[in-house]
Amino acid sequence: MTDEQPRRTWATMKDVARHAGVSLSTVSYVLNDSGPVAAPRRERVLEAVRVLGYTPNEAGRSLKRRAMSTVGMVVPELSNPYFALVVEGVERAASGRDALLVLCAPEAEGATGSAETVARLLRSRRLSGVVYITGTTTDPEAVASLTSLGPVVLVDEQLPALNLPAVVSDNRKGAREMAAHVLARGHTRVAVIGGPSNLWTAQQRLAGYRDAFAAAGLDPQRVPVLEGDYRERSGSVLARKLLDVPADRRPTVLICANDLMAIGALDYARNVGLTVPDDLGVVGFDDLPFSRVLTPRLTTVRQPAHDLGRRAGELLFAAIDGGSTGNGIMETVPPLDTEVQIRDSVGAPPPV
Amino acid sequence: MTDEQPRRTWATMKDVARHAGVSLSTVSYVLNDSGPVAAPRRERVLEAVRVLGYTPNEAGRSLKRRAMSTVGMVVPELSNPYFALVVEGVERAASGRDALLVLCAPEAEGATGSAETVARLLRSRRLSGVVYITGTTTDPEAVASLTSLGPVVLVDEQLPALNLPAVVSDNRKGAREMAAHVLARGHTRVAVIGGPSNLWTAQQRLAGYRDAFAAAGLDPQRVPVLEGDYRERSGSVLARKLLDVPADRRPTVLICANDLMAIGALDYARNVGLTVPDDLGVVGFDDLPFSRVLTPRLTTVRQPAHDLGRRAGELLFAAIDGGSTGNGIMETVPPLDTEVQIRDSVGAPPPV
DNA sequence: TTGTACGCGTTATCAC
DNA sequence: GTGATAACGCGTACAA
Question: Which residues of B touch A107 (CB under 8 A)?
Fold first, then answer.
C-alpha cells in the first residue's frame, strides 16, 4: 500500500473562512475578539476551526505585530544544575504567559557559537525579549546589541558596565556570613577557591569573604585565593594545589565560591585520605539540591535559584508589556536574600 | 532630557536595497547565493548590510518556506540533571545547524500547561520538528498530533504504542547486569524501588532486573517492587517503607531505578543510622555526574545522556532534511550502550 | 454586521 | 546580470 505523502501543510484562515462560508475578517474577528460578529456565524467559524484543526500561523502574525511572542534564554551551560533550576523558573514564567522560550547554551561542552553568533540568531527571530545568564566568555557588546530588539534582563549574574536590569541574589552578604561562620568555628588558616574573576558573582563573593576576614582581624591579603571556573574539576585541581603542602602550613578549611567546586574539593580531599570535617573543612555556595545529601552534608549558602528565574521572567514580561526600553528604566528588583545553611562539612579546626 | 522612544524597528531588505542602490532581488541573491551578481554590486550590498546592521527577519522567511528553522524540545522538568544533560546535547546539535530550540517543561514544579496546550503552542510556531522526552503525565495523543507539523523524535523514553523514531539506551541490558552484579555479591534479600510503571524505561529496567533474578534462580515474584516517581523524595519515602520492618526480614540491598531515588534512599538510610554499604547496599541508574562523588560512591548504570540528546537532534535534522514523514520511515538508531559502574555503595550482605 | 484590499519582510518567477 | 512582481498567512483600516 502506498502511504500518501503527507502534505505537511496546514489550514489557513482562508480555508476556515471558506469552510464556514464567511469572509477572512470575520474569522479574524472571532479569533481575536477584535470585532463584532453574530452568534450563529461565530459558531460556524469555531466549528470550522475545530474540523480543520486550524492553528494560527505565528509567522504571519508576527509579521504584522513586528514582534514574536517568544523570548530568548541564554545560559552558559545546562550541566550546572544551578543554571538548570534558574532556566526552569524562567520557563515557568513564560509558559504562564503562553509565550515560548528559545534556549541557547553557548558555553556547553563542544560549544560552537560565539556570543555574537548567538545574538545574531536571536535577533533574526525578532524575539520580544531575552533573559541572559552571562558566563565567562560572554561578550558584553553582544549582550548590549540585544537591547535593540527588546528588553534584556540579566539573571543570577550581572554586568555592572552595562546597567541592565538584573535579578540577582545578595551574593556579598551570603559570602560574608559564610566566612564569618567559618571563622567563628575557630579556623585561622583558611583558603579560598574563587570563581572566574571576570564574573560579578565571583567578585561579590570574594568581597564578602574579605569583609568577614577584615572584621575578624584577619588580613585579607594573607588569605590565599585561587581562581577556579565554577566547575567541579577545578575544585579538585585547586584543592590539590592548596593541600599539597606541609601539614603545618596547610589550610584547615577551604571556602569554595560554589557547590560544584566544593564537591570537587571534597572528592580530592577524600582521595588523599583527608577526612571532612575532621581534618579539613569545606564550604560551598548555591545550595544545590544534592549538597544536602552529600556526606558530609555540605555547609553552603542558599540561593533561591527557581525564584531568581521566575522573577526574571516576570520582570521581562512586565517590561515587554510596559514597552520599556530595557535601558534600566524598568522597575528594578532588590537582591534576593541568601542564607547560610549550616550543615556538617565544617567543624572546629583540627588540633595542631 | 527626554529619551527618544526607541522605535524597536529594524532595517529591512528594502532599506538595504535602497542604501545600496540596487533592487530587492539583488539583495536576496547576495544573501542566499541564489543568483548571479556582479562583484562590485555584491560588495555594495554587503556594505549596506553592515552599515544598517541588517538581520534577516525569520518571520518573513518562514512565511515563504512554510516552516521555521526552529525545533521544539519537550522535557518533563529540568530539575532532573539527567534531563538537563540530554537537553544540552540536543541544543548542541541544533546550534551546530544554526537552528533554535524552543523549550517546554510541562511537568516542572508549578506546572501550568497540559500536554495538549504544549502541542498547540508548538504547532502555532510551525516548528520544523520536535524532540520529546515523555514523562508520566504525557498524553500519547498529544505527541502523535505533533507529527502533523513535522518529524518527532523521542529521546531517552519511548512510546511503544506510537512507533515513533526514538533514541534510547539499552535500559534492559544495563538493569540486568546491575542486578546480576548485586546478586553476585551474595545478596538474597533484595528489593526494588522502581520508576513510574507507565514509563517505558521503568518497565525495561524492571524487566532487566527480573531477567537477572530468574537467571540466578531467584523467583522474581518474591522480590518486593515499589513504584516511585524517579524523584529523590520518593526514594526516601519508599526506602522507609522497605526498611521499617524487623531486621531479619529487611532487604540487604535496594535496587533503585534511577540515581535520584537512590540518593533519596541513601539519605533515608543514613538518617536512621544504617551504614552503606555495610548494613545496606544501594544502587542506582543513570550515573549522574554527582553520583561519582557521593559517599559512598554510588554503584550505578551509566547512560550517555549527552550523546543521547545529540544523536536525537541529529536524527531529527536528518529527518527534516530528508523530508521524512516522522512515521517511522526515518532511519532508526540502535539502542546506545549502557554500562555498570561498580563503585562503593554495595558490598557483601551483612552477616545474619 | 460583514466583506475588500493592503501591508508586514522575504523568496521565487519571470521578463528584460 | 538585473529588476519588477506575485505570493506566503495574518491583521485591520475602510467601504458596503
Answer: none
